[in-house]
Amino acid sequence: MNGFRDREDAGRQLAVELQSYAAKHPVVLALPRGGVPVGYEIARGLHAPLDVWVVRKVGVPWHEELGAGAVAEGGYLRLNDDVLQAVGISPEELTATIQRKKREVEERVKLFRDGLPRPELRDRTVIVVDDGIATGGTVRAAIESIRAQRPAAIVLAVPVAAPEAIEALRPEVERIVCLKKPAELHAIGLWYLDFGQVSDEEVLRFLDRARREQMEAEHAVA
């Protein structure tokens, strides 16, 4: 097989490559929803806490797949001026779209954290995880918004990515661990036998399982 069985398989393979970070007591931040099953296996393999970092792409209103920027938790906003100028979006439309995406970020944070505080990242090693990278716009927004929290180091871990996206992101992080960098990515899902959509309920189950396992591990040490 030239790819991965599923996201969990990809996460287990990444955990092997990331073993040297276990001693640094990192925090694993997965981009929901697809990054969470990958991140769960990494966190489990490193005996590290798992959380999410919520980012939403700001799409052009009449072409949502065309990214004009991104909004991330912590009040972060990043806009692509070249795209905005090319499509000619009005300030009113842009403002309305940004506000809608900010509300989506707030709603997802509330759903996935269930009232728990945002993880403390200052002076921590942070491993940022997604299930694949095509252009890198959303991941870049996540990295930049996490950098504002002043971590000691940011490591990007991803099963598969376009080589040009990896090279563009390399200056933004201390290290990138990417298992497959095909010259022709085509679509991320092609590199998985099972790339079914991850539901909000599945995200919550992975997070709950990770928190329980982390608490059990801490009690065992105590």
Characterise this structure.
This protein has 222 residues and is of the alpha/beta class. The chain folds into 2 domains: 7-54 and 122-221, Rossmann fold (3-Layer(aba) Sandwich), CATH 3.40.50; 56-112, Ybab, Chain: A (2-Layer Sandwich). The chain has 7 helices and 8 strands, in the order αβαββββααβαβαβα. The strands form 2 sheets. Strands 2-1-6-7-8 form a 5-stranded parallel beta sheet, with helices on both faces. A 3-stranded antiparallel beta sheet has the order 3-4-5. Strand 3 and strand 4 (63-72) form a beta hairpin. The longest helix is centred in the middle third of the chain and has 23 residues, at 91-113. It is globular, with a radius of gyration of 17 Å.
CATH topology category name of the largest domain: Rossmann fold
Question: What shape does the CA trace take?
Answer: globular
Order of helices and strands: HEHEEEEHHEHEHEH
CATH architecture of the largest domain: 3-Layer(aba) Sandwich
Q: Give the biggest sheet.
A: 5 strands, parallel
Helix content: 40-55%
Assign the structural class, choosing from mainly alpha, mainly beta, alpha/beta, alpha+beta, or little secondary structure. alpha/beta
Approximately how much beta-strand content do the residues carry? 15-25%
Biggest sheet, spatial arrangement of strands? 2-1-6-7-8
Distance between the termini: 43 Å
Describe this protein with a few key phrases.
single chain; 222 residues; alpha/beta; Rossmann fold; Ybab, Chain: A; 2 domains; 7 helices; 8 strands; 42% helix; 21% strand
